[in-house]
Amino acid sequence: MKQILPVLTGLIFTFFLCGCGVDSVSAPTSFDPGKLPDPLPSQVSATVAERFAPSEDEEKALSVLPKLARIRYDQLLSIEKKLAPLSQQLGAPRYGEWRSTWHQKRQTLANYITQGAVTADDRHRTVYLQPFDDLTAKDQLEVQKLAAFLRIFLAMPVTIQPTIKLDAIPQDKRRQTEGHVQILAPYLLDEVLFKSIPQDAACRLGILTTDLYRGSGYDFLFGQAGLYSRVGVISFSRLYTENVALFRKRMYRVAAHETLHMFTIAHEPDLRCLMNGCNKLEHFDTVPLWCSPETLGKFLWATSAEAEKRFHYLAEFYNAEGFTLEADYCTLARSLLSAPFPSRQPENTTPATSTETK
Ligand SMILES: [Zn+2]
Q: Is residue 208 part of a domain?
């Protein structure tokens, strides 16, 4: 693992956390979560694309990259710009919404690369799923579905490990709330998942059905992951529904979200994205399964995945699942990537007309 920052393995960032005790929150209304984004008009998307370009300071930091890394950065920047028309700006955060509580700075592709991120390499390329023994036989089948999804979403090998027993978790790392048991997520990350992470792991995701909590002040977590420790955990507890397709979409979303955190990818604060922070199930159900262009750029850097190929296979997978919206998004994204990036028309110029006479 070439870019894991030392001493940060214990630094766990908390995401997908829930702080209840606030009024019910609706999703931002500037988009329809059930509809494919309308590609932005060219002038608007050109402005969004410009936003992805490095600042002066970032350009300075990028200038010390090895030549091949700089070439890869430029390729990824070009992908971000080509996908800019699919960007959806989030509206202002509403009271109680995750973004109204947590003000996170945008993590650009340039600072992601230059400040060090966890990346997969030839020796650390497998994503391990670690089930716990509270999962039912039916849940275990869903874990297999999840592995199939992640193999395509991440374009990486995914292995399910033998089940670990939860009864060794000390009593002081559990609590009773609302009539059910919760387990302290940071304990699972630091003392269980991290301490026995396989040598060839790119990252390791624990999966259980018992509810999770972080500590005082947090009612529950959908999941939690370390930005540098390469371990994360998710719970099915809050995802269950009679609607199998909806359950799976939730499972895919929370697992993909936490896995991207394990590659040091932060929340996306401005654009609609799988990496939007979230604290309510009703909002969570409006978070897309796709990445914003900038998140995608970071993901491609971390995994070396090929964008067009990935979109192709993801579209196939989503179609087979009946996830038409997601499949259509992948098809549209792929078509944008195969088209040359349009150059912006210079402003205040009038079309040249030939008035010259000889
Ligand atoms: Zn998160």
A: yes
1 lies in some domain: no
The domain in which residue 177 lies consists of: 12-20+39-338
**Which tokens sit at 113?**
């690369």
289 Cα: distance to centroid of ligand 1 (angstroms)? 13
* Spacing, Cα 258 to ligand 1 middle (Å): 6
* pLDDT tens-place string over residues 287-340: 999 999 999 999 999 999 999 999 999 999 999 999 999 999 999 999 999 876
Query: 278 CA distance to ligand 1 centroid (A)?
Result: 7
CATH code (residue 70): 3.40.390.10
86 within 8 A of 39, measured Cβ to Cβ: yes
* Cβ atoms 223, 16 nearer than 8 A: yes
pTM score, whole prediction: 0.86
Quick check: 279 and 19 in contact, CB under 8 A? Answer: yes
> Distance from the CA of 133 to the center of ligand 1, in angstroms?
25
CA-wise closest residue to 330 among 308, 311, 307, 310: 311
Does residue 138 sit within a domain?
Answer: yes
The total of structural domains in the chain comes to 1
The CA distance from 176 to 192, in Å, is 21
The answer to whether residue 52 sits within a structural domain is: yes
* Structure-token pair, residue 38: 């309308």
The answer to whether 129 touches 146, Cβ cutoff 8 Å, is yes
Give 298 Cα–ligand 1 centroid separation in angstroms: 15
pLDDT in tens, 128-149: 999 999 999 999 999 999 999 9
The residues that bridge with 206 in the sheet, in sequence order, are 130, 233
**C-alpha 357 to ligand 1 mean position (Å):** 65
Largest CA distance in the chain: 94
Cα 221 to ligand 1 centre (Å): 10
